[in-house]
Amino acid sequence: MSTSSKKTRIVVIGVGAVGSTTAYTLLLRHRMDELVLLDANMDKARGDAQDMNHGLPFVGNVKVWAGTYEDCREADIVIITAGAAQKPGESRIDLLKRNVAIYESITTEVLKYNDHGILLIASNPVDVMSYFTLKKSNWPVNRVIGSGTLLDSARFRYLIGEKLNVDPRSVHAHIVGEHGDSELPLWSLSNIAGSQLSLSEEDKTEIFENTKNAAYQIISSKGATYYAIALALDRICVAILRNEGAVLNVSTLLQDYHGVSDVFLGVPCIVDRTGVREVLHVTLNEQEKQQLTASANKLKEIIESVEM
Ligand code: NAD
């Protein structure tokens, strides 16, 4: 899918459930010329690369291999999905201490070889992992992107579409804030072709509760979530590689955003080849502003507890 003569390369670090599904999604959709898989368990990365290479006669000309950190040198995007997965009943926040240590070692290695690419963070708690990645790497803020509430917004749009029997692609609706328990729905901005959604308060509560609790529901059914997040990460990669200027609810460092500063949260952003080109200052009502502030405060407390 490259648009120039330079080969496009994506490196996926951590090819567990999310990483391998993301790599497979990128491969099926032919998003890059070169796909590098990297994991602490190199046997897994090698096996995945071998397996995917055997599918190339059905997909086409993509080079896939299990690599090392040196392969990050030519990477346009480094997706980090490494880390401990959420256990049934475990909150995302409980994963934090386990994942921060893993991330520090990974980003140190990546940055030895790459000073130009985009770091796309998916490991949870994704807003906090993105924050620490930015602070420890000192990279330009636009080039550290968390998957944020893009997945949550997709779940939200799907559930609204299901209730109203409308294609979810035609539903404009946003979840913002933490990718997690303090996220909030922007009902004031939700619409279908500009018309207000004909949903009762009861419907709205049910839709938002099912959006917020989706990961817990899926994890208790099958242990992990990976298909929809893989498609969300694929969507972000396309926006970057095609220089789309797409509006996506990714996690970025907010500064003076409805009074919120110095924290990563998912909000509508314009994403292109430069990463997060612009954070959109959407209009919020008073209740939404308060909920966004509460979400930011929760994440700040968590960040402070790790920094201590
Ligand atoms: P998993 O356990 O299946 O995979 C994690 C992989 O990371 C494993 O293959 C492991 O070997 C690897 N790993 C661990 N330490 C590493 C290191 N130092 N270097 C390289 N690789 C290392 O977990 P999963 O289900 O794939 O989930 C991965 C992460 O993604 C979790 O944090 C999970 O909570 C998160 N997640 C995020 C979203 C989102 O919307 N952002 C959605 C689903 C899952």
- The third-level CATH topology of the largest domain is L-2-Hydroxyisocaproate Dehydrogenase, Chain A, domain 2
Helix content: 40-55%
CATH architecture of the largest domain: Alpha-Beta Complex
CA-based shape: globular
Mean pLDDT: 94
Cα separation of the termini:
45 Å
| Poorly predicted residue ranges | none
* The CATH top-level class label of the largest domain: Alpha Beta
Description:
- With 308 residues, this protein is α/β, with parallel strands linked by helices.
- It folds into 2 domains: 9-146, 3-Layer(aba) Sandwich (Rossmann fold); 150-307, L-2-Hydroxyisocaproate Dehydrogenase, Chain A, domain 2 (Alpha-Beta Complex), CATH 3.90.110.10.
- Helix content is 43%, strand content 19%.
- It has 10 helices and 13 strands.
- The chain has helices spanning 17-28, 42-53, 56-59, 96-113, 126-137, 150-164, 201-212, 214-222, 227-241, 286-307, and strands at residues 9-13, 34-38, 63-66, 77-80, 118-121, 144-146, 171-172, 175-176, 184-185, 191-192, 246-254, 263-272, 275-279.
- The strands form 4 sheets. The protein has a 6-stranded parallel sheet, with helices on both faces.
- Helix 1 links the parallel strand 1 (9-13) and strand 2 (34-38).
- Helix 4 packs parallel to helix 5 (126-137).
- The radius of gyration is 19 Å and the shape is globular.
- The chain starts with 8 loop residues before the first strand and ends with a helix.
- The model has no long low-confidence stretch (mean pLDDT 94).
- Residues 13-19, 39-41, 44, 81-83, 85-86, 95, 99, 102, 105-106, 122-124, 126, 147, 151, 179, 224-225, 229 line the site of nicotinamide-adenine-dinucleotide.
